[in-house]
User: Fold this.
Amino acid sequence: MRVADLAIIVAYLLFITWFGAQFKEKQSTLKDYFLGGRGAPWWAIAFSIVSAETSTLTVIGTPALSFAGNFTFLQLILGYLLGRIVVAVLFLPHYFRGEMFTAYELMQRRFGPRVRKFTAGTFLVLRALAEGVRVFAVSIVVSVVLGWGELPSIILIVCLTLFYTFEGGMTAVIWTDVVQMILYIGGALLSFFLIVHLTPGGWTHAVSVGEAAHKFQMFDFRFSLSAAFFQRNYSFWAGLIGGCFLTTASHGTEQLLVQRLLAARSERESRRALFASWAVVFFQFALFLMIGLLLYVYYNSTGKTAPAIPERTYPEFIWNHLPVGVAGLVIAAILAAAMSNLSAALNALASTTIMDFLKPLRPHYAEARYLRFARWATVVWGVILFSVGLAARHWGRVLEAGLSIASVLYGALLGVFLLGVLTKRAGEWAAIIGMSAGFAVTLLLRNHVAYTWYVLIGSCTTFIVGLVAGVFLPQRAERRLAPHVTV
Assistant:
């Protein structure tokens, strides 16, 4: 272990923990703790959106995809843009009518309290499982650096992130996201140029080897209605349609990202942050795929043996081949991505727990008491995510495991939101029946189709079954999406 690299990593971890904790004094209300007082600029929220949807899964999993395959993963980015357009048109206008803290308050306005709790509960399960995979992913990096086992690696990151999230709330989350995102993008750029320098023949050789191995293939336009077509994770159609539904679900219905949109000063700034985040996401995915290509060329050109686990390729190369000091900086950047995403998840899980479950049950508590509960809810979710992270060791390839777990639940969640926004006939029980059907069908088909189709299948099933159920079930009085209604 090199003292200079370890000193950089330790210094970063201490600094970001101290920096996040500095926002404690600004947390006096639930609006401060969960929405940052709606005072952050749009560009900081854009960075925070990217940080929330990026994690160590992206940093170590994306290079592994191009190292073992090609650039077809980028087809999802086209769907990400289309999904953001849908969110801006369909959901943002509703979210900025009145003061909302969570996405699921919209479901109470439209359907009633049962659907609010059903959708909020779905988010809690979804985020706990998906975040557990991400927590495990960071243990891979820490174990490479320190030689520790997975258990102490997970404890270290969870405890440090939990501390500043507990103290600083959403304000700490947003501004540490900005710092951490600058660090991990800068670290990736630095490692990109250094890998080019270390590769025999440099960039020209890397391009020629990549072209010969078809690494630069980005599009796969093959289309059929066969089972094999729907089992391919990355095709143009799966990327465009599946990516659109995935992004609409994640950015339009999941509290982790909706919370950032709600933290903007206005609907206009929220929309600006949403689209700016897409440009950053496109850049970072392309950068990490290019790093995977360079690693493929390096190992093939030098005859050295690559790690048996693809996700270890990038962090092991950094630690073993980059100069002293530089390696520590890049590893710190990878940890930045992990802590950024984890802090976002902890705050989102706490906000949903308090605003969608505790506050409706106990509406007359003082604001200070709710704030105290919010902090301790953050701690409880930290313990839960730690536990799920240990279990995630046995769930397969980390990037695709995280996306597939989320996609199983996203479908039903998006379907019921579309049912609420686009229709007026379906009532509360019709929405619940629709969601249940969406879950069941997605789980039934998940071993027969690629995860990129899960959200489309689940949302369409939920929407259609809910619509049909609304015809046959008597409705209770509907809660319209009126601007004056508050919960």
